[in-house]
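Bumping with the actual sequence this time:
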Amino acid sequence: MDGRNGAGRCLPMSANTAEVTQRIAMKAVIANANGEVLLLRVADTDKAGGNAGKYGAPGGKLKPGEAWEEGLKREVKEETGLDIVVGRPLQVGEWRPVVQGRQLQIVAVFFACTSSTTEVKLSEENDAYAWVDLDSLGQIVRLEPDCTVVQNYLQGSYEKA
């Protein structure tokens, strides 16, 4: 049995799926008035799962029973201090990190979003942020599938929020 990752390649499923913890995540592709998109750099913490120093879209895992839109707004507010307006879904992505010795399967929905302000206040999960365009996107270390989604958004592959 095969699973799909964010890049469309097939990855083998674990022989014992009981060993894999599934999570649902929501991610925000937040554009500013200049058409740049906000990315956050993952801080070097025990939750980083090998992603420290890489940039990705704000957002995170839903709490059990949490409504998806409220979870997305909560995660973005916690990570950036921004209040967002959620637009249309852009893409579904999947990744399978090992975090603290535990195999995860994270399925995320990326949404086009806007905010009335660009004044970012980072949480301890992230140690830097950048508003990127297509040129600057190629100059940073990026998480996937986040940055493929952001690149497609900046190239106009999706309808804007």
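The tokens above came from a reply further down the thread. The first strand starts at residue 2 and ends at 4.
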